[in-house]
Amino acid sequence: MKKSLEIICGTLAGLALLAIMLLTFLDVSGRKLLSQSITGSLELTELLMVVVIFGALPLVSLKGEHVVFDSLDAVLPAWFQRLQRALVDIVCAALLMGLAYLMWNTGAEFAVTGETTAQLKITKAPFIQGMGLLCGLTALVHLLKVFWQSDEESAEGGTL
Amino acid sequence: MTEALLGFLAIFVLALMRMPLAFSMGLVGIVGIGLTRGWMPALASTAQVVHETGFAYTLSVIPLFILMGNFVARAGLAHELFHAAYTFIGHRRGGLAHATIAACAGFGAICGSSIATAATMSKVAYPSMKKIGYSDALSTGVIAAGGTLGIMIPPSTIMVIYGIITETHIGKLFAAGVIPGILTAILMMVAVVIMTSRDPEHAPPGEKFTWSQRWAALRGIWGVLLLVFVVLGGIYGGFFTATEGAGMGAMGAFLFALARKALSKEVLLQVLIESARTTAMLFTLLIAATIFANFVNYTSLPFELKDWITGLGLSPIMIVGAMMLIYVLLGTVMEELTMVLLTIPLFFPIVVQLGFDPVWFGVLIVMVIQIGLISPPVGMNLFVLNTLLPKVGLGTIFRGVWPLVLVLVITLGILLAFPGLSLWLPSMME
Fold first, then answer.
1. CB–CB of B282 and A25 under 8 A?
2. Chain B residues with CB inside 8 Å of A63's CB?
3. Measured between alpha carbons, how far is B198 from B200 in angstroms, rounded to an integer?
4. How far apart are CA B9 and CA B287, in angstroms?
5. Phi first, then psi: what are they for B384, rounded to 5°?
6. What SS3 state is found at B58?
C-alpha cells in the first residue's frame, strides 16, 4: 500500500514537474528565438503546480519530511515518543481533513460559477477539488501512520 | 498585541510537542483569525491562501531551481569543479581545503541549496582529503561551511522565498549575493591558511600538476560556466525573469545529466519525485506561514513593535544589528527557514520603515541562515554530513566547523557595516 501510494502520487507529481520544466523551456526559447510563444503556457504551469504540490504532499507526510523540532527526542523515553507521535499524527490528520473539506467546498463553488482559466478555458473546479482530495489522502496517511511503524523518518528537508 | 504573542507562544509549544512546524503555524493562524475576527473570515482567508499559493505562475521558480540543483548534483559537474580547483592549488599546504571551498563556490553558482552543495561535496571532496591524510575535523568542517555558499551565491532557493514573501525583486537579490558570496569564500580560505599553519600535519599538500593538465581541467568545467552564463547572465541582463531562468537552468542541467548518461529512467523519476516532495514540503510551510502572517497582521503587534523599537532611540543600524544578533542566537537551536518565515512579518516592516534596502536585508538574512546551518548544536549541514559520513562523529564535525562559524559571523559584520558590498551589483541592473 505504501509502495502503490509512492508510485501513483510520485509519478503524478514528478511528471507534472517535468512538464513544467519542458513547458517553460519551450515557451521561453520559442518566445526569445522565434517570437512564438505557447498559448496558455502560464496557466498550464499554474495548473501543473497544483498537481506537483498537492500530488507530492501525501509522500512528504508518509516519509515524515515535514520540518519538525526533534531536539527533545534524545531526552524523552521511547513510550512517550510513540504516544506523542500518535497524537501529533491524529491532530495533523484532523487539520488536513478540515482543509480537505474546505477546499472541496471551495471547488464546488467554482463549479457552480463555472470559472475557467483565461486563455485555454480550462475549468478550475476539478483542480481545486483535487487539492481537497489529496489533502484528504494526506490526512489518511497521517492516520495510518499511527499504526504503521515509521521506518523512514528523516528530519531533513532539502530546501536550504 | 497579546493575541499575537500568544500565537507565537502556541507555535513554540506545539513545535516542542513535535508537531510539524507548518501544521503548528497553520493551526495557530486559523484559530487566531477565528478567535479575533470570526470563523467565517478565518475559513475564507485560508481557502484563499491555499488557492492562490497553489495557482501561482511565479512560484514555479521554486520547484524549477530545486530541480536544477538536483539534476546538477546527479550530472557529476561537481567532480570537474573540484578537480579543476585541485590542479591549481592542491599542492599547497591545506590546498585541498582551499580547492573544496572554491569548488563549493562554483557549485553554488548552479545550485541554490546549501544542503545539496554540502552533500555533493562530501562525496567528491571528502574521499580525496581522506586519502592524503587530512584530519576529519578539518575536511568535514570545510565541506559543511563551504556548502553554505550554495545559498549566498545565486541561484538561491532561500533568496527566492525571501523575494516572494517580501515582494523583493529576485533578480536583484541574486545579483546582491555575488560579492558577499565570493567574499565569504575568500575569508574562509584565509581561515584555512591560519588553521593549517597552526597544525600543518592535518592538511598535507596534494599532488602537483603541470600547466597543461591545469588547462585541461579548466576546460572540463565548461558545462558549469555555460549554465551560469545562460541562467544568471540571462536573469542579470534582463533577458529572462527569474522563473524563466529557472526553467532554462533546469532544462540545461537535465540535458547535461542526460548527455553524461547519469539519468536512467528510474533515476530521472527519482530526481523528479524528490524535487516534487521538497516543493510540497516547502509550499506547506509557505501556505502556513502566510496564514499565520495574515493573523499577525490583523493584530496590533507589528505596529506596536515598530513604535516600541523606533521609540528606543537607537540608531537604525543598531536596530538591524540587534535583529541579526537575535537571528544568530535563534539559529543555533531553530530550523532556519521557519525562523525566517516566523519573524519576517515582524522585522521586515521595521527595516523598510527605517529606510533600509530590502535587497540588503535579504543578503543579511541569507548570511544568518548560513551561520545557523553550521552552528552547533542544531545545524542542518552538520547533520547531513553526519548522515552521509557515518564514520565521522558529530563531535568531530563540530570541532572542525566552529572556526568557520566565526568567519561567517565576521562576514555578517562586514556586510552590515558596508551595504555597498551587497548593493553595488544590483544597482547596475536596468
1. no
2. 277
3. 6
4. 20
5. -65, -45
6. helix
C-alpha B155: how far from chain center: 9
Residue B92 vs residues A100, B196, B203, B307: alpha-carbon distances, Å = 60, 11, 9, 55
Nearest residue of A to residue B116, measured between CA atoms: A158
Nearest Cα to B234, choosing from B151, B171, B152, B160? Answer: B171
Residue A75: the pLDDT is 86
Closest CA to A13 of B111, B270, B251: B270
The predicted model scores a pTM of 0.92
pLDDT at A52: 97
Q: What b-and-e string marks burial along B257-285, b requiring 16 or more CB atoms within 10 Å of the CB?
A: beeeebbeeeebbbbbbbbbbbbbbbbbb
Interface residue A63 vs chain B (CB under 8 A): yes
Q: Give the whole-angstrom CA distance, residue B353 versus residue B138.
A: 43
Q: What are the DSSP calls for B132-164, one per residue?
A: TT--HHHHHHHHHHHHTHHHHSSS-HHHHHHHH
pLDDT tens-place string over residues B41-82 = 999 999 999 999 999 998 999 999 999 999 998 888 999 999
Low-confidence ranges of chain B (pLDDT < 50): none
DSSP A64-103: T-S----GGGGGS-HHHHHHHHHHHHHHHHHHHHHHHHHH
How do the domains of chain B map onto residue ranges? Answer: 58-428
Nearest to B115 among A27, A69, A158 (CB): A158
Looking at beta carbons, which residues of chain A come within 8 Å of B238? Answer: none
Chain A residues closer than 8 Å to B115 by CB: 156, 158-160
ipTM of this predicted complex? 0.93
Check if B386 contacts A (Cβ < 8 Å). Answer: no
